[in-house]
Amino acid sequence: MRTSHVRRNGGHIAYEVQGEGPLVVLAHGMGENRASFRHLVPLLVAAGHRVASVDVRGHGESSAGWPTYAPAEVGADLLAVVRDLDAGPAVLVGSSSAAAAVVFAATDAPELVTGIVQIGAFVGQPKLNPLLRMAMWSVLHSPRLFGMFHNTLFPVHRPADDAAYRRSMVTNLREPGRMAATRGVIAPAEPHWTARAPQVRQPVLVLMGSKDPDFPDPGAEARAARRLFGTAEARMIEESGHYPHADQPQRTAEQLLGFLAVCTGA
């Protein structure tokens, strides 16, 4: 697919578009790239949606070396993509760290956003003991170790092409500035997305893998996220880890398509 770019202060954001119909914008989590959604996109396109998969700033083919990777700025990047396509309003889907970004986008430009989806959202900062904190520091400074950590986020199922995707991801992370971006998108920033959540007026869907190893109780985390919004649903993707769009794309698409129909009035 052809890569498009939109200029932003500090660099450019890469994205690709497939399909025709109401716009859906997908944003991946830390260290990944837009290929994270490679198994979900065809399902959304087949159902009649135009899908823009974005490389979050500092990741994939987007430029590195940004002064900030705060969720509010990532959200502004997603809005820039919607404007660049002149195809909005759109439903914004954010995975992991990008789940925070879609909240800022929805409140900063509500006229461009018809709904948001959070996949694997973190309601609070993970509490790590000193040993785990040291281990995570190492992971966030080493492409190889990040790849090993990423492998653990598929505790039940994994895509058939998972190993090839991970090799490509690690190769990308070895480029200058990529690990700094990986650390940047999860660095504490104010305001936290949870402070903005009550201001969201669009429909919200919270998705969580039932076996997500990032959370002691994935269901409780999903319900905690849901309660922050005025109108929201929380749904579990059974037998899925941190990336349900990758390890359970069909089940994830089924949940998304029902929500998209509500947002678009289809």
Provide an overview of this structure:
There is one protein chain. Helices cover 39% and strands 18% of the residues. It contains eleven helices and eight strands. The protein has an eight-stranded mixed sheet, sandwiched between helices. Helix 3 links the parallel strand 5 and strand 6.
Topology at a glance:
Blueprint (H helix, E strand, L loop, with lengths): L3 E5 L2 E8 L4 E5 L13 H6 L3 E5 L16 H15 L4 E6 L2 H11 L4 E7 L10 H10 L3 H9 L10 H12 L4 H7 L8 H4 L7 E6 L8 H10 L4 E6 L6 H4 L1 H16 L2
Parallel strand pairs: 3-4, 3-5, 5-6, 6-7, 7-8
Antiparallel strand pairs: 1-2, 2-4
Question: Order of helices and strands, N to C?
Answer: EEEHEHEHEHHHHHEHEHH
Q: Which geometry do the CA atoms define?
A: globular
Unreliable residue runs: none
What is the helix fraction of residues, given as a range?
Answer: 25-40%
Descriptors:
alpha/beta, 8 strands, 11 helices, eight-stranded mixed beta sheet, single chain, 266 residues, globular
Could you give a quick summary of the protein structure above?
With 266 residues, the protein is α/β, with parallel strands linked by helices. The protein has helices spanning 41-46, 71-85, 98-108, 130-139, 143-151, 162-173, 178-184, 193-196, 218-227, 244-247, 249-264; strands at residues 4-8, 11-18, 23-27, 50-54, 90-95, 113-119, 204-209, 232-237.
